[in-house]
C-alpha cells in the first residue's frame, strides 16, 4: 500500500454504502477516484456526484481503460463479473474494501467498531457525533448519511486517536471470504445484537455466531466490549472476548457494577427522554429525537462508551440531545396532504417490528399504513416467512411489494408475499394487507385510501423503484 496522492483508484460496486464512503475518504486524501455500479441510487449516488466522483454503469471490461493504479473490489462483485475478469487479465493490484481501509487508515488510530445485526448505522452516527462534540475530530465510515455531518465518511485529524466504523458481518470479497470487521483492527466494540441474517452467505445462527466470535477475539486486552444485556446469542459468545473490560447495557436491572441500565422517563411526538444508571451514578437525562426503545438502547451504548473514553457527561448529554438522525432511518420525508410520510431501511423482521413499534409509540393517535419491499438477501428467502406475519401488527394497513428479483433463488426457498398476505389477513376480522406487483399500484391505492392525519411508513433497503418521490408527488 505505497500509493502516492494523485494515483488513480478504481472502486467496483462504488454505490454500496461502505464503498461510497471509502471513495470519499480516498478522494479527500488526494487520490483520483472513479468507479462502477449496476444500479446507482440515492443517497450514495447523490453523495458521489456531489464529490465529483464519476460512476460508470453498467459493469463492463472497458471501464478499466485507462488502466487504474489500484482497484478496490466490492463484495457485490463476483469472480465472473466482466470487470473482475478484466482486472485479472490486466494484473492491476487490487484489494477488498476492509483490507484497504485497515492498511491505509485504521492502523494509525484506535478503532471504535459498532457491530451487530441491528442498529449499526444509527449507533455509529451517534458515536461519531459525540466524539466530534467532544473536540476529538474522529474519522468515521458509516453505512448511511448522518444528518449532523452530511457525509457518510471523514478522514480523521492526524492528532485524533479515534476512527468510528460500522462493523458489518457480511463477507469481504469473492477472494476474501471473511467478515468485513476482521480487517478493522477493533479496539473498542459495541455489539448491539446477534441474530440470523444474510441467508445468502450464512447457513444458520451458529454460523453467524462464529463470525462474531472472530470479532470478539480481535479486541486487545486494553480494549473494551459493550453489549446489549438482553441478547442471549451474545452471551453465548462472550467467552471468546480478548478483553476483560466487558460492560452491558439494557432496560433490565442486573446485579453487576459493569451494567448500565436505561430508563425511559417520558415520550412525546418531539422526543424521548431517558436516563442511564451506571456505577451508582445517574447519566443524563437525555432527550432523543429518534423514536422507539431500540434507539434508546443504541444511545445508551454510545453514552456508556463515551463515558468510558473520558468524554465529559455534559458533552455526551448535549451531543445526544442534538443528534439529528440518519437519512433513510426513520426519516420524515414530508407531510403532503396532511399525511406524515416516513422512510426507513428496515428489512429484517426484528427491525420491522421495532421500527413500527417505535414510530407508533411516538404517534399513537395516527392511523399507520406500512409499505414494505422484501429486497435484502434474507427477506427474499423463506427463512423468516412466518416471522413477518407478526412484524406488522403495529400498523392498521399493510401494502407489500412482490419480492425483488428471486430468479437466482431456488423456488422452494423463495419468500412468498402471497402467503404472508394470507397470514396477515387471518389475524384480523377484516382484510388489512394487500399484495402489489408494481410501485404504481401501491401509490394509487395509498393515495385513494389515505387521508389527512394518517402516518405512512415506507420500508426497503434499496431504491424501491422510486416510490418515495412518486408517492410524495401523488399525495400532494
Topology:
Blueprint: E1 8-12, H1 17-28, E2 32-36, H2 44-50, E3 54-56, E4 70-73, H3 82-90, E5 94-96, H4 97-104, E6 110-115, H5 120-133, E7 139-141, E8 153-154, E9 162-167, E10 171-173, E11 176-179, E12 186-191, H6 205-218, E13 224-228, H7 232-235, E14 246-250, E15 259-267, E16 272-278, E17 281-288, H8 293-308, H9 313-321, E18 331-334, E19 340-344, H10 349-362, E20 368-372, H11 387-391, E21 397-401, H12 417-425, E22 433-436, H13 439-449, E23 455-459, H14 467-475
Helix pairs in contact: 1-2, 5-8, 5-9, 8-9, 13-14
As a whole number of angstroms, the C-alpha radius of gyration is: 22 Å
The overall number of domains is 3
CATH class of the largest domain: Alpha Beta
- Helix/strand-derived category reads alpha/beta
Estimate the helix proportion, in percent. 25-40%
Tally of contiguous helical segments: 14
Number of strands: 23
Mean pLDDT: 93
The unreliable regions are none
CATH architect. name of the largest domain: 3-Layer(aba) Sandwich
Strand order of the largest sheet: 8-7-9-6-12-13-14-15-16-17
The gross shape turns out to be globular
CATH superfamily of the largest domain: Mur-like, catalytic domain
Largest sheet: 10 strands, mixed
What CATH calls the topology of the largest domain is UDP-N-acetylmuramoyl-L-alanine:D-glutamate ligase
Q: Whole-Å distance between the termini?
A: 52 Å
Strand content: 15-25%
